[in-house]
Structure to design on (69 residues):
C-alpha cells in the first residue's frame, strides 16, 4: 500500500512539473491546491532540465559500437 502511495505521489509531481514547464498551468495555480511551494516547483523544473542536458551529453551504447568500426 505504501509503495502504491509513493507511485501516485511521484506521478502527481511529474504531472504538475510537466504542466508548468509546458505552460499549461502557472506556478500560482498549482501551489495552493496541492500544498506545494513555488520554490519546490521551480526546483523540479531546474533539476529536470539538468538531467535532460546530462542525458543528451551521454553517449548511447549503440553509437560506440558503430564508431569503433
Amino acid at each position: 500500500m505504501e509503495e502504491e502511495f509513493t507511485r501516485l505521489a511521484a506521478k502527481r509531481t511529474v504531472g504538475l512539473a510537466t504542466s508548468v514547464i509546458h505552460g499549461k498551468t502557472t506556478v500560482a495555480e498549482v501551489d495552493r491546491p496541492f500544498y506545494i511551494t513555488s520554490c519546490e516547483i521551480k526546483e523540479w523544473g531546474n533539476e529536470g532540465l539538468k538531467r535532460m542536458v546530462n542525458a543528451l551529453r551521454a553517449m548511447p551504447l549503440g553509437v560506440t559500437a558503430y564508431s569503433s568500426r
User: Anything to note?
Assistant: The first helix runs from residue 2 to 21. The two ends are 50 Å apart (CA to CA). Helices lie at 2-21, 27-34, 38-57, 61-67. The mean pLDDT is 77.
